[in-house]
Amino acid sequence: MDLDNQAQIKELAERLGVENLVVVIGALDSGGAEIAAMTVTSGDPTYAGPLAGVSLRLPVYHVLEPEVRSSVDQAAYQEEVELMEMALEESVEDIVATTRKAREGLD
Amino acid sequence: MTAPVVKGFAALLVHAPNLVRYGAEPFYRLRARGEDAGATLRPGLRSYEDALRYPPNQAFIGNLRPEALGDLPVPWYAHPLEGASPQGRHGDLMSEEIFYGFLKVADDFSQVSLEADFLEEIQESLRQHPLFQETDAKRLGRGATAPDLAQKVSSEEALPLFLGERMVGIVQRAHPLDPSLSAHALLENLACKASALLALRQLLGQHPGGPESIDYLLSCSEEAVGDRFNRGGGNLAKAVGELAGCLNATGADVKSFCSAPLHAMVMAGGLAQSGVYGDIAIVGGGSLPKLGMNYDRHLEAGIPVLEDMLGAVAFIVGPDDGHNPQIRLDAVGRHDIRAGFSQQAIMEALVVRPLERLGLSISSVDRYASELQNPDITRRFERGDTAKTNYKMIAALAAKRGEIPADGLDTFVATCGMPGFAPSQGHIPVGIAYLGHGMDLLSSGQARRIMFLAKGSLFLGRMTHLADGMSVLVEQHP
After folding, report:
1. Tens digit of pLDDT for each residue in B232-244?
2. pLDDT average, residue stretch B410-434
3. Which helix (H) or strand (E) is B198 found in, with range?
């Protein structure tokens, strides 16, 4: 995950408290989704950014998961996300599975 | 209908393994860690022969159609081509030692000093190089002694230029305090100028009117030429034009991150069509800061550092000449400020709207030349296959509009797209790398219509959250 994003998430978690945050990621493949999800739960697995060794254990969702899709404005979803969803190389299920796994590991 | 035309195209690649240490990522990171850049990078640097036989490089200089890369085994770096040539249909793949010679040729202020023995060694090859001109000889000077060069490096006035472990020259700062005139900034600017110059000379060598027929020059290069009072002040265009012998031209630079080349193409088209200027040359020099962008990941993966190439392009836009491919100024796609941030909004602005203005469908374009970043590099480093993702988005737009069946996306991508093949050079991969190949298709009747697309990450400069985008439709002359 981008180092600036890591810094921003860390700062938000400190300011607002981890209980008041949910992270929604939009990685285009399962590998990218896995790294992003791990970064905000167990810490940056690449040990490159501000979240290296920092386990925030934030609930993380992929934008393509039904929980996200059903809770946002459908017109906006169609406008912002639908085309990217159609352009994916992997199946949605594969991409969201790694995010779900990271989230469920928090329980 | 008269329309401005694209009259010629040239490309240049420089294999620059010893300059990788001065790419932004290696330079700042290794310096911060106090690591010896040479020792850290050496295990990952490839030979000239390996770079020459690397399939995407052969595609870039015009010896291989980019579309044919899809039939080759991957990863490409593990499957070198047989019979690769350093001379391509669109330009050369130059070695680093010869490029150092041209770095000195491009230097007007004695910032570059080459070591005398090294200069002697390359002298003959340089003189025989088709892009070396008689007037270049005296610009090379006599060279300096190794102890003199070493002294300037140790007093931190200069950066060393290496070939392996041997120091063969230096680049000196022009001011002790000004970061815009530091040795590093000047090396970036001179590498850009020298590579742009070589591409322009290549182009003008094939242009019937020669250099003096050029009225105007636009540089879409990325480097910020200037000083502390005007960082990025610019006009690399004129500096390059001077050494290319464009004595009747003036010029200016165009900036918009990676989309600058297409802005330049549209501006040139407008200026040529309106009669302000006749033939206009556009140059995009190589971007040294991009070298080794992912060097650490390459090293970690035990693969060669593939971001070791400087790439440059040059092309001419002029008034309608009755036969060269036309730029459709009535179908320029632009990402206007209101268009929004989503990829969908950008693609609609760049692809759908300009085609609608002409009453054309997405599938009536034979080829799309979009962000042609090399998947050998991007796939490995979590950024996926940028070119393919773009093509799938264009295909998805066509499907949403009912032009192609929902299960026809892959067929569309295979027909209208191509694998990315351009060196990681910011502005070079975005569409423009395909211009020479595209002109070949349009001139030979193998394609009627090609759309060039570019996106620019303006937000990286921290002045706006906006992105930028531009598209240009180029057609076979009717």
Report:
1. 999 999 999 999 9
2. 95
3. helix B183-205
